[in-house]
Structures are given as structure tokens and as C-alpha cells.
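Case study 2.
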Amino acid sequence: MGEAVHVLIADDHPLVLGALRQAVVGAVPGAAIFEAGDFDSVAATLEAHPEMDLVLLDLTMPGVRGFSGLLFLRAERPGLPVIVVSANEDRAVMRHCLEFGAAAYVPKSLDVESMRTAIRTVLDGGQWAPPDLDVAATPNKEATALVRRLSSLTPQQVRVLMMLSQGLLNKQIAYELSVSEATVKAHVSAILQKLGVESRTQAVILAAKIERVQELALAG
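Prediction:
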């Protein structure tokens, strides 16, 4: 057998981490498993381990808003498969994740064997979704258009948009990302252009729209 498969489990709940670790070990014996409890740790782990083969991502871990974690990963590492593992079982949220490029969507309520099947399927180059999810269902046109626009952002632009959503000023974003304020301004201008809006407030509102789909589903 060749080199070990490298898997990053990104979740901030110890019990879930344990279950996912068990699923990975069962699906890929001998896998090298890494863990991250917040978004910054995810970014740092991927930077330290460019050979990563798979990420299991929770949608609601610290430092992530809505689909921003998935967006960042798809922009930063388009060739790296991402399995979204979430307590959210809303069908619209599942379809949005697949639209954003997730290789699979695994509800946390699923049994371990189903999780293992999803992991094996994705590592074999396939896609996986819950059997009862109608992937071909007619999508919401407005949401699909927004998905397309958000997907055009670069990894750094995704991070800047996340920070704008948190209410940070340009100088605070510059400090967090270790770049100049001029660089942040350039990113903000590019974000506005790609999202088709005129102000940073409108950009934040637009980003929150698709996040609201998720929040409404969680509240329901």
C-alpha cells in the first residue's frame, strides 16, 4: 500500500470529532488524521499539510459564517474534496453545499457505516448525498445566481467578506491578514464588483441572504 491518506476533521464538538474519527478509521485504515476546532486552525493545518486528501467540514464551527468555510476551501484548494458533515438536514442547505462544490453532504444523524460509505465514495472520486435528497430538484434561481457570484471570489476575498460580515474595519482586517490597508481596499473593490453591489453594506447583506437559508433551517 502507498502513502497514508491524509484527512482533516474540522469540527468543534468533541463527541462529533470522536464519531468522525471512528468513521474515517473504519473507512480508511491507517489514515493520517488531523483535527481543527475553528476556521483559523483549518487554514493553518492546510497550509502546513498541502498533501491533504480530504476534509470533513462542519458548517457552524467558530470563525465560519453560513457557507463561508466551504467557499474558502473550494477557492483555496479546488482539487481537495470536502465532505460537509452537519446537524442541518434542510434540503435547500444540502443542495447549496453541493452547488458550492462539496463532494458530499453527510447529516450528523447518519449511522457510522453510512458515513464510511460516503468517505470511501469521495476518496474514490465520486459524490455522495443522502439517498432521500432529490439533487435534481428545481433550484431557487436567486440563490443559484448568488452561489455563482460568491463562488467567483478568491480565498482572500472570501476571508475579507467574512470579516466585513463581522463588522471589522479595513485597518482591522489588514491587521488580521497581515496585509496593507491598500490591499484590503483592493479586495473590497473586487468583492463589490464580483457581487454586483455598490457598498460594503450591500455586500454583507447579500452574503447574509444565503446564510439566512441555513439559519432558518436550523431554527425550524
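Confidence is low (pLDDT under 50) at residues 214-220.
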